[in-house]
């Protein structure tokens, strides 16, 4: 796991955008995340697209997850959110931005169809990830099998309360979701996880230095041969091996 520590959240976004742009230049299939953390990275990518530096015309994208029961036009559906925050502002083909169908009559069949669509597209080249305060990635809550494909999950009360800020009340947060599984995520070529702020310090310490366990779904990154974790100083606060990560960063052997 390559851990990159930057002084501020803005610098985390700049570092993440640099990595994503490298992939986009090669026509990558992108795995996109919602939540507040990647928003600054999306702003960087939009800015650099507007500056004429990068085109997304040869890329397509798969979202990580979706709430069950929110129609695509609902403001808090991830289908809507990713368009509003990112893909409506770049030149990616709108038809190439896929997300699990949260309104499917049979969500279990929708999960299987989404997994197959990712396989049919040749897989995801680079998967952007945030992390929940309880260590979840996508909507894979603690206890989810480390090998799961895209599936139906039930949100943890902690996640419902964390995400209530986007809704009128916690009672409005859907309880059920469709999410790429930890198995799906592990098949992406490059994982790029972002975390900023002191409230993420515990989750970051667990995923990077804790045991590999389904109780911290993000610890599955320990199994991936190409995982990059980009965090700010606040989110790095719980790491024990911090000085070594800084040493590695200062002495990178360039390819
Ligand atoms: C949601 C999303 C996750 C995201 C997490 C953290 O639950 N499903 O993909 O990583 O929230 O969100 P934030 O970045 O807002 O802290």
Automatic annotation (TrEMBL):
* Domain Glucosamine/galactosamine-6-phosphate isomerase: from-to ranges: 14-228
Q: Which GO terms describe its molecular function?
A: glucosamine-6-phosphate deaminase activity; identical protein binding
Reaction it catalyzes = alpha-D-glucosamine 6-phosphate + H2O = beta-D-fructose 6-phosphate + NH4(+)
Enzymatic class: hydrolase
**One record GO biological process:** carbohydrate metabolic process
Keyword Lyase (UniProt) = no
Which Enzyme Commission number(s) are on file for it?
A: 3.5.99.6
Q: Which residues form the active site?
A: 65, 134, 136, 141
- Its annotated pathway? Amino-sugar metabolism; N-acetylneuraminate degradation; D-fructose 6-phosphate from N-acetylneuraminate: step 5/5
Instruction: Give the CC-aspect GO terms.
Output: cytoplasm
The alphabetized UniProt keywords are: Carbohydrate metabolism, Hydrolase
The UniProt family comment states: Belongs to the glucosamine/galactosamine-6-phosphate isomerase family. NagB subfamily.
User: What job does the chain carry out?
Assistant: Catalyzes the reversible isomerization-deamination of glucosamine 6-phosphate (GlcN6P) to form fructose 6-phosphate (Fru6P) and ammonium ion.
Q: What is this protein called?
A: Glucosamine-6-phosphate deaminase
Q: What is the lineage of its organism?
A: Bacteria, Bacillati, Actinomycetota, Actinomycetes, Mycobacteriales
